[in-house]
Design goal:
single chain; about 80 residues; two-stranded antiparallel ribbon; 2 helices
C-alpha cells in the first residue's frame, strides 16, 4: 500500500502549485487604457433645445488624413447594398 509521507505530500503540493501558477498570467496592478481609434467627441458636445421642444444633442469630430471621394464611394456602395 501507498503510505503518504511528508516528502511525497510536499512534492505533490509543489507540483500542483507550479501547475496552477503556470496557467495564470501575471496580472497588471492597474488597468491599461487602450487608445480609441475614433477621436474623442466630448469636447464638442452641445445640448440644444428649449422649454418647448425636446433637447437635441450634437457633437462633431475632425478626422485627419481622410479622402472625401473614397468615403463618398463607400457610403454610396453601402446604401446601394442595403437597397436604397
Amino acid at each position: 500500500m501507498f503510505k503518504p509521507d511528508l516528502l511525497n505530500c510536499l512534492l505533490l503540493l509543489s507540483a500542483l502549485w507550479a501547475f496552477a501558477c503556470s496557467h495564470t498570467g501575471i496580472q497588471p496592478n492597474e488597468e491599461r487604457t487602450i487608445p480609441a481609434p475614433v477621436p474623442d467627441c466630448q469636447g464638442n458636445f452641445v445640448r440644444q433645445g428649449g422649454l418647448i421642444s425636446r433637447p437635441v444633442y450634437k457633437t462633431w469630430v475632425k478626422y485627419d488624413h481622410l479622402e472625401f471621394k473614397k468615403g463618398f464611394d463607400i457610403a454610396v456602395k453601402t446604401l446601394q447594398s442595403q437597397g436604397h
